[in-house]
UniProtKB/TrEMBL annotation:
The gene is aldH. It comes from Pontibacillus salipaludis. This is Aldehyde dehydrogenase. Belongs to the aldehyde dehydrogenase family. The keyword Oxidoreductase applies. Residues 12-427 form the Aldehyde dehydrogenase domain. Gene3D superfamilies: Aldehyde Dehydrogenase, Chain A, domain 1 (3.40.605.10), Aldehyde Dehydrogenase, Chain A, domain 2 (3.40.309.10).
Amino acid sequence: MENYQELTQKQKSFFRTGETKHTQYRIDTLNKLKDLMTTHEQDILDALKADLNKPEGETKRAEIGLVVAEINYMVENLVNWSTPEEVDTPSTHEGATSFITPEPYGSALVIAPWNYPVQLALLPLAGAVAAGNTAVLKPSELTPNTSNLLANMINDNFSREYLCVVEGEVETSTALLKEDFDYIFFTGSTGVGRIVAEAAAKNLTPTTLELGGKSPAIVHEDADLNEAAKRIAGGKFANAGQTCVAPDYVLAHSRIKDSLIAKIKEAITNTYGENVSASDYNHVVSERHFDRLYNFLDNGDMAVGGRSDRSQLFIEPTVLDNVSFEDPVMQDEIFGPILPVLTYEETSQAIDTVANRPKPLALYLFSDDQEVQDDVLNNISFGGGAINDTINHMTTHYLPFGGVGDSGMGAYHGKASFDTFTHFKSILKRSNK
Ligand code: NAD
């Protein structure tokens, strides 16, 4: 195993040279990262096909396209974001001026998951670079082809003291977490998030935790059921449900539940055809995850789908009806193509149901009723979400993206990424007159 203490020290020394703080240096690095996305496009498509059977279109959109768009936005705005901001000074401090100067933390550690293994590694890395940090990236071992490709892309094109990829499993993460990084950015499960937070506490390292949870889609009785069904199915079954912000379950008003399930079935057929085959649809990432998901298939009543093939790590888009909160499928984040549908009668009941459980990463509400929208938004705490849509709040760099409570702390994307990896240093400058 590499000596990570030496690696961190080298990065800290390089950071101390001040090189990474130059705005042009950051812009050049961001552009180089962007160019790598183009020159390695085919390699990225191949790696994701091999690791997750990810369809090309989805890789182009959700892995490559999002990273390129984010970098373009950062490059456009970096000078503005990096400029110290002059602020007011109270009259009690006569003769003084005040300003806030953004400075990078130093050396950042980024630990990434496997479900969008390029996007969720490179978006935080771009944030670290934009803010002027050095960085070590540890991709997930569960997507080995992508991990290896990222290592080649970064390690062949940047000096190790500036940006580097360290590949490995839990022991590697554990060893890296012992080092005294200046910032830790972790994306993954809530359980491992706690381990990361504990390790970070030892060095009092500021940390962003991008975690998961059970994100509900509440479908009210006034909802446009055709659109709701399409958008729920789209957000749930993309990447075979292995999306942190995928609707985990549906809470449907009891009056429209049956029609909604019928329309979700229609939406699945329209997207994947009558026979979803293992060839054109994402794999479940591993046998362990397949077995975990397979055990949920007998919860409640099978309303749609349910076929599976362990040899192909394939589970077709599945909807479960008559599920209760006591069923195993409702205990933890599902993170697979299985959608339980539960019901409510009154809005207040739906609100209590969600608000009494750990704060979800996302929440989706399908209703045009302003009162219902206000009630839900004002009475449930969750990371972020959408009204009459799913997952797309995370694909705009104008909205900070992150969780709250069990679903995480801190946020990133766009300006929020720059802010996350930046310490804002406040200075009062007094005159000697
Ligand atoms: P995970 O927590 O198992 O692993 C994430 C990373 O942590 C990997 O690089 C892994 O090697 C490392 N790791 C695993 N165990 C560790 C340990 N004991 N100590 C230190 N490091 C360890 O998560 P995953 O299975 O890769 O991803 C799925 C989870 O991530 C889901 O819960 C999902 O909701 C969440 N997620 C959240 C976001 C978000 O942006 N909020 C995005 C994607 C995924």
